[in-house]
């Protein structure tokens, strides 16, 4: 029978419930797929999760952790697919594999890295999941040894070369999870309540480990065949651990069945790592320019009250997803003039039509405005006809005079979003394959009719309660669309999207059921690149190349006319910096 693990006796100093919270808030771990996070060949963070391989250990209360790392393990592909799961077979790891190479570099340079565990890591002695801690940061470790082993695998060779790493606690203090019960309180992350720790629930004595430590000098022996040195790791005897040697993994001429670590190899080792930085991310602070839409402001934060890492999911401030503490940095409003200097890369200096796109480009023409506004509105309109009469794309360029309206709408958007009168949020993506929620890479708010694509239907504000920024954007879009299409479009929904620096809207098509054939959006603030590409016929088909790139700037209105634009193409918008867009649609018409 498996013993029930006790709950954590203390609040972890740094923890999270989703991988995105970790990656957006904790600089030492920013990898969404791999368990090893490295940059420039240096490992910064290593995530321990899942079932242990043979001889993986969590020893001496976690001061020594031995783990197999570096990828190429057996894995399930497309695990959300209906039907039998497809497996990727395990493969031999090589010293040249990027993560193995980086881990080995940390080892040779004695460079500390940060270990994290998730609630599936079987060797952690506490039940993290029961308290809602999905990811927990353990602290700084250094790699005292790295060596290769054979591990059984269900591939053709029945075994693969895996690299093992011995991670040792850097100290100088004891690991935080070994604090005595009296010192600790439990935070129940599911209910958000602080609980007193009940001693009877623990089956683990939390005594201090032996303080007697030894230097890291393990006996090594030289292989007669390859002349390479390997350490004495197993109590059963010494083996050559060079995977390219013919006597690799051979114990007295035979492959070993049972191996245990030698007592000397796993004894406590003295570590002298002083002056390591505090791992708790600092609070974001005001900058000299008072700009609060730069990249640093889009990142998550660490709640000093309860230790939770949270994404920046509200526009107006950071909020802890656990205890709801708030952190706000006051900023200033930005004006369109600040983005005039922006030049997209030379590749996209001008709107660009792919060579084999089949798109017909109508030269910019002057579009006659309706009679009452004729003398003030003269807009350049770029119209692109899609192949096989699939539809048209019109880009109505703003003019300095007409942009006065856009400037005011931009100002109101910022003011109302900052005060929380316009609730801009990052909503969960429905097509997420990661554990936990995964939020869009932009903030949005929907007004008018519900639009399922973002935020579900529950977060929509009817037009009669929508703030003036949204109503102003709707009026401007209606006016410009009438100008370009010579008809009134009965727009009944507006999605306002706000992007901080480096945020974007990924490829998608607005193909919601009941969507009318005209979709029009107003651009405010920074310039953006809008790319169109044909939709892949199926998930398995190779994605086709971009056929059209438009540069959209402050005050421009882009119109997608015809169902075919959404049916045959998808688009992405990549702003060059802080930008707001209001996209109007006709829903359920
Ligand atoms: O212009 C933008 O920022 C994105 C508009 C868009 O693609 C959408 O709302 O679906």
From TrEMBL:
Domain (Alpha-ketoglutarate-dependent dioxygenase AlkB-like): residue spans on this chain: 401-576
A Gene Ontology molecular function term of the record: ferrous iron binding
Residues that, per the record, bind 2-oxoglutarate: 499, 508, 571
InterPro entries: AlkB-like, AlkB-like_sf, ALKBH2
GO biological process: DNA alkylation repair
Signal peptide: none
Protein name per its UniProtKB record: Alpha-ketoglutarate-dependent dioxygenase AlkB-like domain-containing protein
Organism, as annotated: Rhizopogon vinicolor AM-OR11-026
Higher taxonomy: Eukaryota, Fungi, Dikarya, Basidiomycota, Agaricomycotina
